[in-house]
């Protein structure tokens, strides 16, 4: 039965070969038109490296965050930190004012800018509440500057926001527009909504600030800020928008570099293997067109080019050439024996068509296992990369054979080539004889390695710190480290308190609770996370209360009278300052509470989110709704999604590929056995990660599902040829030897190309790509070793024990 099906499929591929060779020009025109149509969409590609792009648009955490941005604006800040010996000197402050003004006037997509120049200074004058800039009146002498210094030092809200604790660093905080500049413009009045409008009034949906606009803003800020850099005016620029832009720039640089390097490596390997121009040019055309067509699918499918996508071009180059190598190896060998081109194309497709299709399908299945991932960029990569593999398969089965049938080719005679092949054959013959003659030692050594690796797997840990992907020398990372250390944080956790009633925030109990929570949350500290500063409506209320009581520090507190709270907040609202709209909605129903903290590993953020929620619930009770959001909440959710998606994708990839192997080999037992050489390399690689301390992150989690899809390729070619030869000879030793002599060279070449295609990531500027590259490359090498040592050993032992079916029906 299996033999009948196999023969029918092979005859079908042979018939298909006749069809292709007879209509070669039509095939070329149609395939080139298809790729051209797809490639025409490449200029429409949109890049997106923002933190919120890690989650699907329907993810509850992202929906909550979007609602937060709709109400309170974007929480991601660009921070310009300036280090000096003394902030409050005429020379320094004059330069700071110039920098502040230039940034304010020339930065695109800017919503607000705050520094000591315009920092809020609230005080009372008689019965009036005065809210003005700290430097409303510019000091004319050092004595006046000293007065400003004391005013700033005594303001608790400036500490760790605008001034470091040692007073040697000050900052300019830039808040960007929440929305893209394209489309509907904001209401010119801005600020608060109509006081009579309900809080749930539907808003016109607008797109948030785009990745391109974020880059435009960051570029301008960096250009302006760094132009002021001087020995006693040391400038640092960072914040999540800056880190996202740095990652995007690195992604663009790496992608161009590795695509070019991948092409050069593939060309060199193909030249060494085939010693023909056609053997180099044709596979390169196929893989280049595959990349072009695949990239064109991105805008067609409505997907953006995200961080994980940067591996796509070089990955498709390395994977796509594998099918070409197997087809060309058989084609050129047949031509070398004096057969006509057309007959050689037919023979190559009939002989290798089925395993080529199977290897492409298993690779695509490994990638498609990510399609359901909760991490949006990983899901997008799974869909697009698997489609790219299928497009590469299509071109290998259409464009390549059509081109071969049209090109003028003839047999080559090369004594040097024969000698080179003899040396390779001798090596493969030695490996075949060793693996079958010492089958048990090979299996035992493999088992020991697996046990050691399993012990290493227990040491694995998850991590997600995008800014640490950047090199230590990257200015934005250096700046972020300084801001985190000296200003106690460049990221934030946002808490929304919804009283569920209009003017609910006039309640003294609620406001006192928010004030108490400032101390409670600032006291939170673990080995990995600490809170550097909290800000809320309570701070504004306390400032106003003190000012309206003759600036008496004893009244820097929350009033216990509802009407007094309402009156003081009303006075502040009408003072000319728009600061209140950052912390409360127009109905005084919802309040925003910001906890500023250093960037931390996302694996710990969910715990702090849960702790903060519990603290708020403990202080404010059950009558209010508590929602934790902001960038840190999104990163915490991303880590959760990463862990879940990894487990899900590994199970799906392993299960689907196992079923495909069972179907391909026509035996449940043999299909399961064939997975041992495929899974063993992944287990060993995970063990290596555990022993050397490489974490599982957004990129290293890809290794398992990608590697199993690639590792199974060589297994398919080995098992396909092994069973065919074993059917004819009945000898395991002969079948293994002839299989390696036949398919072994192509297996070796494709593994070299694949592994090198990943090893080139060692030259990346991003640590996550470095780890992904060397680990995936190592896995592919291990998979090759498993296929030429472990797989033959297993066949030998199981054949002796009569535990696998014979091949009489294969």
UniProtKB/TrEMBL annotation:
Transmembrane intervals: 20-39, 258-274, 280-300, 312-332, 352-371, 383-404, 439-462, 649-668, 688-712, 746-766, 772-794
Short name of any one Pfam family annotated for the protein: MMPL
UniProt xrefs under SUPFAM superfamilies: Multidrug efflux transporter AcrB transmembrane domain
GO function terms (MF aspect): transmembrane transporter activity
Cellular component GO terms, alphabetical: plasma membrane
Residues of the SSD domain: 284-406, 670-797
Topology of the protein relative to the lipid bilayer: Multi-pass membrane protein
Location of this chain's protein in the cell: Cell membrane
Predominant subcellular localization, coarse grouping: membrane
Keywords: Cell membrane, Membrane, Transmembrane, Transmembrane helix
PANTHER family: BLR2997 PROTEIN, MEMBRANE PROTEIN MJ1562-RELATED
Protein name in the entry: SSD domain-containing protein
Organism classification: Bacteria, Pseudomonadati, Pseudomonadota, Alphaproteobacteria, Rhodospirillales
